[in-house]
Design brief:
Number of domains: 2
Bound molecules: zinc ion
Number of strands: 12
Organism: Methanobrevibacter gottschalkii DSM 11977
Strand content: 35-45%
Family: Belongs to the ZPR1 family.
CATH superfamily of the largest domain: ZPR1, A/B domain
Helix content: 10-25%
Structural class: alpha+beta
Keywords: Metal-binding, Zinc, Zinc-finger
Shape: globular
Strand order of the largest sheet: 8-7-10-5-12
GO molecular function: zinc ion binding
Radius of gyration: 18 Å
InterPro entries: Znf_ZPR1 (IPR004457), ZPR1 (IPR040141), ZPR1-like_arc (IPR004470), ZPR1_A/B_dom (IPR042451), ZPR1_jr_dom (IPR056180), ZPR1_Znf1/2 (IPR042452)
Amino acid sequence: MNEMEINEMIIKCPACSVEGVAKSIMKEIEIPHFGKVLETTIQCPDCGFKHSDIIALEQNDPARYVIEINKNNLSVRVVRSQSATVLIPELGVKVEPGPKSEGYVTNVEGILTRFEDAVKKALNLFDDDASQENGTNTLKEIQNLKKGNGTATLIILDPFGQSNVVSDNVEISEIPENELNTLKTGFSHIEE
Ligand SMILES: [Zn+2]
């Protein structure tokens, strides 16, 4: 992966509004077999605000990316655009795009870590027995997958085809029209 920093500037922090400390960094990243993406990161050392986003520099057809999560695929690079839905059906976990959703470049293990963090948050929020049991089981399954034990399916649904899974083992297919209509794009909904 080639990275080229194309712009760095000091901006007013969008979170705490302090002038002159937050940094905005734009990078053009060339991802093999995918193309160029623009990554923008804003970081404020004052209040800890951090936001990053990925914009693919080309728009494509709606696409579904499917890869098996197993010990050999943990380091496979994953590009998740801000409009993509990410799910692991076996674990019953899913992230849908919302207005605050971020595009990011990570790997399969990084996706698992994001789900792990989300489940941990849910465990702190919901303290009824059923939620605790479900959450604890899901957490165990995610942690097992991260250790390379067992398999599951990672599915990314992107109405703009700007995500990608960079591996020979990925299956990329079109999204049928009827399914496409039920996909959130992040532009008109208020849930994440
Ligand atoms: Zn700030």
